[in-house]
Specification:
Alpha-D-Glucose-1,6-Bisphosphate, Chain A, domain 4; seven-stranded antiparallel beta sheet
């Protein structure tokens, strides 16, 4: 089961970056591979979202539950249902001298051992590229001049 960890530093306060990450339905506005995110449930410390992404022309859809820890600026997510057997991880936000280090982890399992033997390295690379694309999209959104 592959585990991906990607990080980026964003020139913006931690609270603002964290609030952007919690507003997942806006991800398609600045993350090219994310086509749609729809809230199914939205409570103070827990959300359930439906995701549609496009990875090299292949639509991947799933529903996930997110646990929001506002005090520690942490979002943990896990698969409810979808195209994968396992999909979970976290968004972590750390203050670095007024900037924010965002770390995104993804722990996943496609649930098809034969396919994973053949395509595992390619799929792992695609998930890593997608994670980095999401972080770069967040960085571009937060660092964009507002004038």
């Amino acid at each position: 089961m592959p585990y991906i960890k990607s990080s980026i530093e964003i020139k913006s306060p931690k609270k603002e970056v964290y609030e952007l990450a919690k507003n997942m339905e806006k991800f398609p506005d600045f993350m090219r591979d994310v086509k749609e995110v729809r809230f199914i449930k939205k409570e103070k410390n827990e959300t359930v979202t439906e995701w549609v992404t496009d990875i090299d022309g292949v639509a991947i859809t799933w529903t996930e539950k997110e646990l929001l820890d506002d005090e520690n600026h942490l979002i943990k997510y896990e698969l409810v249902e979808g195209d994968l057997d396992k999909f979970e991880g976290e968004w972590r936000f750390e203050d670095i001298s007024g900037n924010t280090k965002v770390t995104l982890t993804v722990d996943f399992d496609f649930g098809m051992p034969n396919m994973e033997d053949l395509l595992g390295p390619v799929l792992e690379l695609k998930v890593k590229e997608n994670s980095e694309m999401m972080l770069k999209g967040m960085k571009a959104k937060m660092e964009r001049p507002t004038g």
